[in-house]
Fold this sequence. Notes:
The protein is mostly helical and 196 residues long. The chain has one domain (8-134, 171-187). It is 56% helix and 3% strand. It contains ten helices and two strands. It has helices at 8-14, 19-31, 43-59, 61-70, 73-91, 99-105, 113-117, 122-132, 145-151, 174-187, and strands spanning 138-140, 159-161. The mean pLDDT is 97.
Amino acid sequence: MKRPKPTQKLVMEVCGKNQGLVSSACHGLHEASLRDIYHLLDFDEAIAFAASSWKSRKLNMDSFAETLDRADLYELFSEVYKIGMPWLNKHKDISPNMESKHQRLNPFNGRNLQDRLSRADERTVEVLKEDLIQDVNKYVFEIQYQDAKRARGGSNYKLEIMNYQLFYPQNGKIVPAFASEVARTVSSYPKEYIPL
């Protein structure tokens, strides 16, 4: 079974055009690829996990590292979804003309997550946890890079330019650019999934 590629418009509707949610999802997908586990997830689950895990790592890495250390994959996702799913559901606003595509991107309808995640191989889980134990990057617009580097005493360690954003940030352009990058990233993942 195959599902369609997400579009910028769909990502914006799933995230309700909320900059905090879509930027966290974008950064989360950049730092911890869900490529090898996406076939087990609904699209909404992938977005909620990427956004919430990144935000949790940014706010309190020590606490998140404890969860990573003690949790199996299902427990990890369940913990992340305590914040991630309400955050996504609060902002999600799917238009009638996107409803069919949205449903096809979410073939599991949130059901049987534990069974689905139990199909993930050990190496995939290890790699995901290795990615998630890293400190988050500091993301800047290109125009901010030199100032940010200077403020860190010349260090550019974990300082990332958002090359998908305009050189000068502009209102009305930032959220669509994040949404395009999320769509591009997830579109590069395999489209096949195993039905329940």
